[in-house]
Design brief:
single chain, alpha+beta, about 20% helix
Length: about 130
């Protein structure tokens, strides 16, 4: 889940990561994170990344992706575009703050709420 926009006068990306996700540990430990965009031929690889935890197996190998390290973070060489973002804000999203009370039952049946991160887009890498 995420969005692109402008905040505090700079281009920004907002991402939402559940407490249980292994990815959250990496985002919390680092000052930067990446957002990647892929050609539709990578749909199967992305489905693996979205359904298998890196805690349980080497999902990157399973998805046949190649790590690409940049600016203190990691992305994948197969991406068509990579945005490198510097964290500028984070906030836990508790159910008490939901204005739409139906969202809790619809999206959080297991009570695994998101943390919202806003990153200033510092670099955009485009595959030629």
């Amino acid at each position: 889940w995420g969005a692109l926009g402008v905040i505090w006068g700079c281009p920004a990306a907002t991402v939402y990561i559940r407490q249980s996700r292994y990815t959250k540990e990496f985002v919390d430990k680092n000052d930067t994170f990446t957002i990647s965009f892929y050609d539709k031929k990578y749909r199967d690889a992305l489905n693996i990344c979205g359904t298998v935890s890196g805690r349980d197996c080497d999902k990157i190998s399973k998805a046949n992706l190649t790590p690409y390290f940049t600016d203190g973070s990691v992305a994948f060489e197969e991406a068509e575009m990579i945005m490198v973002c510097k964290k500028i804000y984070e906030d836990f999203m508790p159910k008490e703050n939901f204005i739409d009370k139906d969202a809790d039952g619809k999206w959080y049946s297991n009570k695994d709420y998101h943390t919202m991160y806003i990153g200033k887009i510092e670099k955009v890498l485009i595959k030629c």
